[in-house]
Amino acid sequence: MEISLHNIALAATTDDLTIALAEILHKPPFQTSPLLNFEIHLSDESHPIGQQGTLTLPTEDAGVTFLRAHGGAGIVVKGRPVLISRSTQAIHESRIERLNNVPWRDPIQLRAEQERLLRRSHWSFQLLRYSFGRFLRDGSFSSQVSPPGTARVICDSEPRQIRFTFEPRQNTYNDLFGEIFGRLTQVVTASYAPHNIATLVGNRNEDTTTVFVRADEPPVYTLVNNTSDDTSRVVGLGRNDHMPPGCHSLMLAFNNQSDADRFTYACHNRLHLRYSTQHHIRIRDHTLNTTSVEKLHETLSQIPYKLGFEIEKTVTDSLLSAMDILSLKEATLSLQAEHGDDAPEIFRSFASELAGRSANRTKRRKPRTQQQSSQETLPSLLRRVTQEFIKEHQKTRPLLAPPPQSGVYLSYHLIVTPTRYILEGPVPDQSNSVLRRYGHPECFLRVCFQDENGSKLHREADCSIIDLLGVRYRSILLNGCRVAGRQFQFLGYSMSGLKEHSVWFVTPFKDEDGKLLNAQSIRDNLGNFSKLHNQPARLAARWSQAFSGTDPSITLLPEEVDFRCLDRYSPSGGLMTDGCSSISVELAREIWRSMQKGKKRSAKLRHVPSAFQFRLGGAKGMVVQDPTIQGKLVRLRPSQIKFDAPENLTFDVQSTSAEPIPVFLNRPLISLMEFLGVETQRIFELQDDDIHKAQSVRSSCTDASKVIQQHGLGASFHLPSLFTNLSSILQLEIGDTEDDPSLWTSKLIESSLQCVETYILRELKYRAHIAVPGSYTLLGVSDEWGCLREGEVYATVFNERTGFVQSITGKVAITRSPQIHPGDLQVVRAVQRPELGHLKNVVVFSCKGERALASCLGGGDLDGDIFNLILDPRLLPTKQFEPGEYPAVAIRSIPNACGISDVADFVIDYIQADLIGPIAISHLRFSDLKTPNCTECIQLANFASQALDFPKSGTPVNFKSLPWLRRTQARPDFLAKEGANITSGQYYNSPKLLGQLFRRVPMKRGIPTKWNGNSSPSDGATVEAALSYVDLHHLGLPGLTDPSEELMEEMTYLLNAYCEQLLIVGQAHTISKNKNIHVSEAELVSGTIMANWSDHQRRRNAVSAMNLQTQELVRRVREELQGEDPGTPVTETYEEEDQQTLETETYEEDPGTPETETYEDEDEVPGTPETETVEEEEVPGTPETETDEEEDYEESEQRVMAETFKRCWAAWCVAEDNLKEDPSMFGAQSFGLIALGMMLDIVKTSRLIM
User: If you count Cβ atoms within 10 Å of the first and of the last residue's Cβ in the chain, which end, N or C, has fewer?
Assistant: First the structure.
């Protein structure tokens, strides 16, 4: 008999219930000889009022007796009464039979026995059967890979993992697996980290010796040679045996119940894995069928790419199988025929329903549970989703998808790991000249090679990746890949993309003239590369210029480009103008005007930047304004021209000098500073100041605004201006005291500030990311006027937003990342010269002397490098070292003309031999044990220079030539990974400055928790009360009246569209590629990611991409909220003037994780995207006309502001209404913040006008 248990304490376990019930069931009136056997099972489903479970008794009489005695009052477990009732579910005969045949075992004795058996570091169990597969929508297990052989499973506590070891059956040649494994004498291991396992699942009724490892992520497969002990990474259960999509989970059939129990007990108690049981898990045989995969691609090729991409994404996300898609063929073809451009969005909603992660719906449409969706047939579910979409789109409403802003496009991504393909997008991304030249962005694919945990794949001392690179990645580069039925071919890469193992692919398409273009024809059109025909790395480096992320400006006329400008050399032949030339003021102004088209009026800057980092055909580098050049002219030097491309005269801008960038210290620089005699007490003071600022973000809105802006956070949601306006307009502060009406207790704001604080403290602790006030990071340019002497620099800093001007003079320290040689930090004299007075926010280097100063700083040049000017006299070195020598590395050549296969081989070589990270880490370790000028550090500095040139030279560093510490040597504590146990023997307390700084930073976990309250988390009433005190009528703005039903309906749809898009962004930037996991709303708003990533640079890149996408999404929402009026720009009209641009933090020099971020390549953008906030020069006109135009503009602007305020108020009301109904609604709070920020900006602007 089965009895339902309700209201179980959340802290109660199965053992707690079993022990409590044994006290009742093992005494009269129940049988006592033998003791009555029974089972307890707790439900996996969470219930806010308590757990639920089932008690199974072997006889009907025992159940009736138990209900008669305890059915009314229940039994008390963990201080809470457990309610009891007869179950209405069907009786499981197999379970009843087992209870009658198997004797009772005391759980306390059983636990003691298991502990006795498990007193060792790992536990190995022989398996009877095994299979890799995945769980289906109905809860059954799809068995897909189960090759013949011998297998064991091991629960290992050090390292903490589950390992499945497989030795293939020998001399088996009659089947597919025999062909793969028959001749091997190796053992394959699949290793699962505990955080990648969702739960262990057991069968409750029959076949209880079977346990399933239900994994969210695939295991890491390695192959060990039994004779040589050599270990290498592989793609699956063999060198060439790729695993099917979603085949992450594992079915384990043990030889006996004892082994199954001990395994689950060890995993639960040693690895802290969840264990649950289900009534019956059906196992379906779905051995991989290559025919169905071919049919899938054939079907997708008949469907437009955008829809096909969404369809294939459900396969790569393991939501559907190839056979499922084939069964939907007619339905998807009808979907495309009937709904056209809306079909991809409909199918995306269909996929969300399948995953049980439906985004927020309108009040009329309640989301269904995953169980409800799984009970529907696939065609029925697709029809329902389609009907709901049609219903929501009956009226003309905002689509939240206007064309992206200039320089941004919607990109499609493919991530290739050792075992799987992951499709992402379309998402906003930075465009490049190739995309703008050819259009058809859907025909270009960004392909990124990653390890399973999202980090870059890299070589390890005890595990080779050569086989994996050859089998998995090289074949894709050479043979291409199929996505949505289209064949994509390797096209090229940018230099920064190569560093992240990211490349471009393209599928053939026709241009405007009907000409078919493919990868080869696009490369041929880039320019003339005949001089590089036998240098694969250098050839690809030149291609990369076209793939660098840039903003478009204008196309020049041939007569506007002067190729006759010569480089300047020192008497000894040193190049002094490497990468830099000049541009006329008139042409610079025209370029800047072009970049500012469509930008807002209220926050424009009137000064054209002094310098541009550019791409122009085959040329690249910097140009600096020269007032002596007449007309429209740009001069190019030989050092800037990398190849001939006379037909491409588009001037693309990578960065500008519109604003100065702050200076932040980092670990390598601090190590050098300590060695060179810098006053360490000053660095402690700066760190203390940063710690105080981080901890003060929740003390006042003013502090929050300043700190957030300094670190470039929250820019997408305009947090700096929002906090300023909350304080100045609404007189509100952030707090958690409900009794004080001046405190706003917004859960999202509170969590976002918690993220900000954690982010800053984490950067301080693990990257030594310490701000240096009053110092600046500037683009470097050459002295075109010859007025600077050797050892002199010129710099004048200008912030047009604040009017701040500083002419820098006297002794200053200058450096450039990466700092690895003691001579990379130099002291120079800053001077002012009238010839250079027009230049702002650049550092001008002298062209006199024997060696260019830029080359003395880590081998820098002037083609876009940024330099740190440290003005604080207490941070100047008291001793100096001669700069390091950075001789040119020999360029690798091949005998024959190279083709794309040779470039593909170089990409594989680069992934295998990229040693920048290990070199940087080794340098910090040797510096800590010895000094930065020890023999090993100087050797590493020379190797670092060669490693930095590897992407262009093709000549790698010899791994065996590097100086290494013993593997058993402990690391300094400041190199500990986030969350690591620094008290273990792996680390020691560094006595040097970096160690002291590391230990002084307090750290706490900052991952925001989900709101579980029953009331709205926004505290909107406080804001509305404060807003009611603002004299809106006097400002010409509408009052806070109830919006019209039509406007509320429009805003409701906008809210839901926003929430769905925000969820997509949140899902794309997690460590796990499990689509049920997403970045929190607070992280999205603050522009941070709180999770610990093994690769810090990968997380920084994810944050940058996430912020670009949220910036674009918020921009589109603000456009939809904008009131309409003819002739008024709709882009960001009321944004706060001091708004920080989005990417500031990306370009702060921080080699905190030297593996990647310390080493800039020539294509990195070394400045902020100032182009969003700077204005073109005013066009002269007659005073009368200009005045009339201004009056008309102000009247029009006032009408627009009033209409916009009304729409924003409606949006705020919709957000508040939805939060009252569903307090946990994802996206509603941030949607309200967007509307509130716009309303406050309008109030501020209206006051200025009045």
Answer: C
Can you name the residues that pair with 200 across neighbouring β-strands?
213, 275
- For residue range 444-502, list pLDDT tens digits in order: 999 999 998 888 888 777 788 988 998 899 999 999 999 999 999 999 999 999 999 99
Please provide residue 961's backbone torsions phi and psi, each rounded to the nearest 5 degrees: -80, -15
Tell me 342's DSSP state: G
What does 998-1023 look like in DSSP terms, one character per residue?
A: HHHS-----PPPPP--SS-SS-HHHH
Model confidence pLDDT, tens digit, residues 578-607? 999 999 999 999 999 888 875 554 445 578
Q: Which residues contact 797 (CB under 8 A, 6 or more apart)?
A: 660, 776, 778, 804, 805, 806, 808, 840, 841
**679-704: pLDDT as tens digits:** 999 999 999 999 999 999 988 899 99
Q: Does residue 595 contact residue 653 with C-beta atoms inside 8 Å? A: yes
Pair type for strands 661-665 and 770-782: antiparallel
Structure tokens at 1175: 């204005």
Angle between helices 1045-1068 and 1096-1121 (to 10 degrees): 170
Assigned token pair, 354: 């399948």
Structure tokens at 515: 């000409």
700: amino acid identity, one letter: S
Cα separation, 1086 vs 1107, in Å, equals 9
Question: What mean pLDDT is reported for the chain?
Answer: 84
pLDDT surpassing 90 at residue 102: no
CB within 8 A of 1099, min separation 6: which ones? 1089, 1091, 1093
Alpha carbon distance 248, 493 (integer Å): 31
Task: Kindly state the DSSP code that residue 1172 receives in the 8-state scheme.
Answer: G
Do 444 and 518 touch, CB atoms closer than 8 A?
no
Decide: 307 and 163 in contact? Cβ < 8 Å.
Answer: no
Q: What's the CA angle centered on 276, arms 272 and 206, to 5 degrees?
A: 135
Contact 709, 720 (CB under 8 A): yes
Segment 1139-1177, tens digit of pLDDT: 333 333 333 333 333 333 333 333 333 333 333 333 333
Question: How many degrees, rounded to 5, is the angle at CA 52 between CA 46 and CA 56?
Answer: 140
Return the half-sphere exposure (C-beta side, CA atoms, 13 A cut-off) of residue 185. 6
Across 215-229, 851-865, 1158-1172, 1216-1230, least confident range: 1158-1172
pLDDT value at 1022 more than 80? yes
Q: Which residue did the predictor score with more confidence, 663 or 285?
A: 663
d(C-alpha 150, C-alpha 255), whole Å: 13
State both tokens at 572: 């000894």
Phi, psi for residue 967 in degrees, rounded to 5: -65, -25
Phi, psi (degrees; rounded to nearest 5) at 506: -145, 145
- What is residue 164's three-state secondary structure? strand
Measured CA to CA, the distance from residue 1087 to residue 716 in angstroms comes to 8
Q: Closest Cα to residue 116, out of 275, 274, 269? A: 269
According to DSSP, the β-strands at 408-416 and 842-845 are unpaired
Which helix (H) or strand (E) element contains residue 901? helix 900-913
Taking alpha carbons only, the member of 1106, 1072, 1160 closest to residue 864 is 1160
pLDDT at 180: 44
Is the four-CA dihedral 950, 955, 961, 967 of positive or negative sign? positive
Residues 6+ apart with CB under 8 A from 334: none
